[in-house]
Design brief:
24% strand, homodimer, 9-stranded mixed beta sheet, alpha/beta
Chain lengths: 314, 314
């Protein structure tokens, strides 16, 4: 079976990170980076993004040592996007200390001809205008999934609504689902969010796992709407760095989907478990360190741990 | 197989409740009441508590129409314990508007001779001094489980520590686990809490389910410490009244355990699911209304829903 390629558009960046466990200066990061690394264990990935002069052979090899095509990463004059953030105490929320957009500020996504047969599109968390530009250049993909965040929900709602109308699957967290819907109850929120366009919705609950919500459009051939499905997150004693956990979740989830011949409810549910698995690795070390050094064997073992964690008859 | 009886000590009370969905004056409530109703679907229950003149045949029949023995409910002069509370917005937390201890203020638990062969003891959320008095009167029970709350953790820690040392299983929520341990991370918190005495710990996460943590003393014959286990909570669109959800969870959990011939990891995990099932019913109507009108068939159906919600191959 040919594994289908995922095209992901999003940030490729450097992160300066401080957490209760330590500090790192300008390590490779960005939503597209974390997503691509996590997804690459399941299916080939193609990245669309922009970097500056500070993105050299060492950073390139993080991608090219995996099955990740970076022909779509544009090299521009100037420096790469640089995010400075810290996490304190519970690490529940990142505190942004600095956002240097640099070359990302004037980014206009261009899709290489070699990417045009991609079947799966992932619109990582960037300006919805850019998400839409990429979607419009890829009208024939088989499935479109995406992410967003509070900033776009609050201040760019008109553009975001155009993206939401294009999505088969939206992957957001509790706070974003509540903000987007105006509903605190997550079941009520899921209905309002899916009414905005996404056929299916994955709501991430951080350390408590994630829930998938479905609509009649999720599996139109099925003749019924599957009930919600919950996947656990692994209880972890020592979170080193939560940066990129959500993108890694999305990469594991969507990578698994793209590796399967068709999107069925069973595939969707298994994908949620792989999302949790990749998110659980991501937080164990700073930046992309842990995902760079995992293996499919280790992923399979952790998948089994997730099953034992949640299944009565595992 | 003889079903083993649970002896529960705790409040039998009247609750005056206001939630976003409505208001009820002086409906039957109390931790022991919710616990007993939920557990009675699995095993016989015996209640130790105190009520006043306002507890009449109508209230009695709520217990006696199920397999609940109320010989241990003392009738005292005065009025029953009366709690007035409200829930707003998200209903995440109860706001206490009034606590009239009434006859509960001078309660000294006395255990009827007919209860002395009870094999399972549940110390519901009351003054740890009372919990300890009951424990001391029942030295030969097979298993002891209990609950507590912020007030006892903050202001009665010395007495509470004596109770914790007696427990096979402690059932508390995220906030209580963090407060009791001084640790935010729940894995770290679980270790510190179990070091205080409880052999096993169930931490409830509200709408996100519950996690069981184990120690070497949980199943001493097993020769290993089972990894944590997570059970989901049902996504519910309309919570009518959260009062008693935690007690109903404990009742379903412990009732199922008492109905089985031995406490194994598999029984413990299945019990967590039944806890979630009974909690999910409890919130659907005010007070004890929903638990009064459910059936074992309905419970079995909902157990299956919990399985489908969380199992890849349900």
């Amino acid at each position: 079976m040919r594994h289908m390629s995922i095209l992901v558009v999003g940030s490729v960046a450097f992160d300066t990170l401080t957490t209760p466990t330590g500090h790192r200066d300008k390590v490779l990061g960005g939503a597209a980076t974390h997503f691509a690394l996590a997804a690459s264990f399941f299916t080939p990935v193609r990245v669309v993004g922009v970097v500056g002069k500070d993105f050299g052979p060492r950073q390139q090899s993080v991608f090219t040592s995996k099955d990740i095509d970076i022909a779509g990463i544009e090299h521009a004059d100037g420096l790469s996007f640089h995010w400075t953030g810290s996490y304190e105490g519970t690490m529940a929320e990142a505190k942004t200390l600095g956002t240097d957009l640099n070359v990302f500020g004037t980014f206009a996504p261009k899709i290489p001809a070699s990417y045009s047969d991609s079947d799966y599109l992932f619109l990582a968390n960037i300006d919805p205008v850019l998400q839409l530009q990429v979607r419009q250049q890829m009208p024939n993909v088989k499935l479109v999934a995406g992410d967003t965040m509070n900033y776009w929900i609050n201040d760019h709602r008109g553009n975001l609504d155009k993206v939401l109308a294009e999505l088969d699957i939206l992957i957001i967290n509790d706070t974003e689902a509540r903000l987007l819907s105006g509903e605190h109850n997550l079941v009520a929120a899921s209905k309002k969010v899916m009414a905005l366009g996404p056929k299916s919705l994955v709501i991430k609950h951080g350390e408590y796992g994630a829930t998938a919500f479905f609509s009649a459009a999720s599996f139109p051939d099925l003749g019924e709407v599957p009930k919600p499905f919950r996947a656990p997150a692994l209880p972890i004693e020592q979170v080193v760095d939560p940066t990129g956990a959500g993108d890694s979740f999305a990469g594991g989830f969507y990578g698994y989907i793209a590796s399967q011949s068709a999107l069925t409810p069973a595939v969707f549910k298994t994908a949620l478990f792989y999302g949790g698995v990749m998110g659980s690795f991501a937080v164990e070390q700073f930046g992309t360190e842990r995902l760079q050094h995992t293996s499919r064997t280790e992923i399979n073992e952790r998948f089994q741990s997730f099953r034992e964690l949640s299944h009565l008859d595992a």
